[in-house]
Write a structure and sequence with these properties.
- By secondary structure, the chain is mainly alpha-helical.
- It has one domain.
- Helix content is 83%, strand content 0%.
């Protein structure tokens, strides 16, 4: 199982590539937050 620090490292490893493509860190965090929210909401609806 992946622990929280590995998830964080993996998530931020994509930030550099996206930043060079024009996406700011704030926008990246915003998009990650939305994806996590939608994933959580989907799991709650299934129950």
């Amino acid at each position: 199982m992946i622990d929280a620090s590995q998830i964080g490292k993996r998530a931020w490893s994509y930030a550099g590539g996206l930043q060079s493509a024009g996406l700011s860190c704030v926008e990246y965090v915003e998009q990650l937050t939305m994806l996590l929210f939608l994933k959580t909401a989907k799991k709650l609806v299934k129950k």
